[in-house]
Amino acid sequence: MKKYLFIFVFLACALNAEIVTHTSTKIASGEGHGLTREEAINNAIIEAVGKISGVNVSSMKRSSTQAISDNSGSNIVDTYSNDISKATKGRADTYNIISAEQDGSGRWIAVVEIKNSKTTKSYKAPGLNNKQRRSLSVFNASYGETRGLGESLKSHVITNLTQSRKFNILDRDNGGYYEMEKALISSGNAGGDEIYKLKNVLGSDYLMIFNIKGAQAKTKQSITSSNTTKVQVSVDYQVILFATREVKYSNTLTMNVSVKDDLKSNEAAFKKIADKITSDILNAIYPLKIANINGQEVVFTQNLNVGERFDCFSQGKALKDSYTKQGTGDMRVETRAGQVEITRADPKLSYAKIIEGQMKEGYICRPLGGGPGYNEGRDANYQVNDGGGVKLGF
Q1: Over the stretch 3-37, which tens digit does the pLDDT of each residue have?
Q2: Could you tell me if 180 and 200 lie in one domain?
């Protein structure tokens, strides 16, 4: 007995559409034998339907046998089509008789083909494809008197990580607003396709958790100007792989900032701390890489601070740990090639002049130290892929 199974998948969507329509068609062929033409066709249909959806063959056979009460072609086709749809719970559309012939002994051999089409819709989020980036959620674990400071710092950290365009930064603070929007979409007042926006929430690949351990302030009073306060801030932060709870990166930042009795200076202080933290994380996980060279100017594909300097390196042989013998990902023998300084930046690109040396696309660039009171943490267990993206040790 011959058996055939073909599957065709079609994708129909507009280039800029947010609702994508997927249409798939399954085609299954079956061969059946019988004493009559109708019995052979019935057995061929049973085989084909079983392939396409795994239905109960005996119930299909009973319903189809009962349908063979009239030998007129149109009546048989209509009855079989109804029985196929019923037996497969609507998962089969039609069937075609490919052949129905008698053999030398008078028995009938029939070959039929069944088609099953299914159309589904899904929501396509606008912007960059989020599947190309890892998802990260930021959490403020500060408590007590530093909780409020942590919330201000958190907003700057999220801004910096979002502008880096290296992660999908997920919101975990505004659940109430999402519930209101969900209720509106589900209320029946929204357009029919709006429902496909639901059930698309991303889960976190990584958790970035920080805790302001302490903030000691010393105020200097001035008769002619506003008070200036020197604050020493100590922040612990970690990057954790959610699926396994492995700590992929950990560090402690201790630095001094100056604030005055106004909101602007306070925000500048928080931004300075956030810049150090996010720069540390990004340079550990996604080392800065030269994307393009234009004369004596190099281009980076992320927002950097004007005036910041970087040492740049060519990379050689990949290294393995002397004890575990495991590859250390992007850790290679590095040769210093020179230094660059950021001269201008926009939300997506930064430009730097070459201070010394010769640069090439792909060179790795690292910041010139963290400044006073900046303590380096443990090495990250990461690997940068040749085609872009990063694996954090798994």
Answers
A1: 444 444 434 433 344 888 888 888 888 899 999 99
A2: yes
Q: Are strands 364-367 and 327-345 parallel, antiparallel or unpaired?
A: unpaired
β-partners of residue 19 are: 123
Instruction: Compute the radius of gyration of the chain from its Cα atoms.
Output: 33
Q: Please, which residues have CB within 8 angstroms of residue 294's CB and are 6 or more apart in sequence?
A: none
For 79-94, write each residue's pLDDT tens digit: 555 555 545 554 566 7
Query: Which residues are CB-neighbours of 367 under 8 A, at least 6 positions away?
Result: 279, 283, 308, 309, 310
Q: Which positions of the chain have pLDDT values less than 70?
A: 1-17, 53-93, 220-227, 261-265, 326-331, 369-394
Whether residue 255 is found in the same domain as residue 325: no
User: Cα–Cα distance between 65 and 156 in angstroms, integer?
Assistant: 72
Together in a domain, 158 and 74: no
User: Which residue in this structure is represented by tokens 């201000």?
Assistant: 152
HEC string for 261-310 = CCHHHHHHHHHHHHHHHHHHHHHHHCCEECCEEECCEEEECCCCCCCCEE
Residue 59 makes CB contacts below 8 A (sequence gap 6+) with 87
Secondary structure letter of residue 359 according to DSSP: -
Co-location of 107 and 190 in the same domain: no
Check: pTM over 0.90? Answer yes or no.
Answer: no
Give burial (CB, 10 Å; 0-12/13-18/19+) of 134: middle
Q: What is the largest CA-CA distance in the chain?
A: 117
Amino acid at 287: P
